[in-house]
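Hey, I'm writing a tutorial for new members on how sequence and structure tokens pair up, and I'd like a real worked example in the thread rather than a made-up one. If someone can provide the structure for the chain below, I'll link this post from the tutorial.
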Amino acid sequence: MHNILLLVVCFLAGGLLRGFGKLPQTTPSVLNGFIIHVSLPAITLLYIHDLSISADVLYMAAMPWLHFGIGAVFFLLLGRFLKLPRATVGALVLTGSMGNTSFLGLPMIETFYGKEGLASGIIVDQLGSFMVLSTLGITVAGIYSDGKPSAGEIFKRIVFFPPFIALVIAVLLMPVEYPAWFSAVLRRLGDTLAPLALFSVGYQLNPVHFRGNVLSLSLGLGFKLLLAPLLLYLLYIHFLGLGGLPIKVTLFEAAMPPMITAGIIATEHGINPPLANLMVAVGVILSFLTLPLWWMVL
């Protein structure tokens, strides 16, 4: 429970310090840069290196990929039907199709399912969510960012995305055992991700951003917190007939609010930053109500 309290404190601290004008306006850019270039690569090098891949984990790892595919189709169709601005659709695809399966998901799993559920959560996050972010997420960011980059430029963004580079290195180093000091350094650097990310989101939350974004925000969070988990629940439980703690944890991860890192990437690429930040910030707040409901359903 102390992990969740830490997230709440960091989120509120960001909002309060912004309100009191104690930090410069460039604070989110600096924090986001540190997260993308230091915190995320450290976590990747630490956890991907120790993962063992087997047939048993395919259903867990597949969930974020399915979630992203369903979300992309849903928001593209929604954008055409409602004639939403291009940047709005891009922000919804990024934030509404990927869940916060790591630094909110893992503490929530430990709270509701105990430590025995964490292994499944890590598989969902590292083999699913993180790889989706590093490939499909960066591709979407490139497509919807200003300037309409070419396929080659998008490919370069994926290949030179710091967490993706760390992912490749971690896979190559799987046969090599890390020295204890190296693992300790990576763990300490990775620990900065959650507090800095929540602080950054809290700092950027501005009531003015609700103007003109209420409909898009409602549709985005309605899909992310309710519709997407329901569709995946029906697929895994009723259609495929799966069960057990790993599947429950996997579906619980599907109900997590929008991924904070996806919101950061949308902001860094100029893809409707106000909406992207609202999706993350309001999603985190609402998830404290929706996640206990999904736990009861599961």
